[in-house]
Design a protein that fits this description.
Strand content: 15-25%
Helix content: 55-70%
Order of helices and strands: EEHEEHE
Strand order of the largest sheet: 1-2-5
Shape: rod-shaped
Distance between the termini: 20 Å
Low-confidence stretches: 1-18
Length: 138
């Protein structure tokens, strides 16, 4: 028999072969915990990729601003353009870059925490179930 638990695209499978391996409620909690941490890892990784793109866009905007010969430029905030001095826009870009870098550092810490917790759970689950459980991405 194949017992499958699905968590947003992640499949955790236990195959109970001829020898029956009892899945206790504690084992099920560990499997569910692994699925939860795996989902968090995916979310944090996607957020980190978006932050990297945002930082690249801010760097591009800063480069474009340096090439501008005008004393004032347009800055888009929300859905409105503001005509601001180049120095003010540079200050806004620097603040946004700093915020983005801080967010990226926080996300990297969260990803590392997820990896640590998932690694611990993998060791525990593989120790009990061996090759009867698959905790790898498909």
């Amino acid at each position: 028999a194949v017992v499958s638990t699905q968590s947003t695209g992640t499949f955790l499978k236990h195959m109970v072969a001829k020898e029956d391996i009892e899945v206790t409620s504690e084992d099920q909690k560990r499997i569910n915990s692994f699925a939860t941490w795996n989902l968090k890892h995916r979310d944090f990784s996607a957020d980190l990729e978006q932050q990297k793109k945002d930082l690249a866009n801010l760097n591009d905007a800063e480069d474009d601003l340096l090439l501008s010969s005008s004393d004032t430029n347009l800055l888009l905030i929300g859905e409105v353009f503001f005509n601001l001095k180049t120095d003010e826009i540079t200050t806004e870009i620097d603040a946004a870059k700093e915020k983005c870098k801080n967010s990226m550092a926080d996300l990297q810490v969260n990803i590392s925490d997820c990896n640590t917790r998932m690694s611990t759970l993998k060791k525990e689950l593989y120790a009990k179930f061996g090759n009867h459980i698959n905790l790898e991405e498909e």
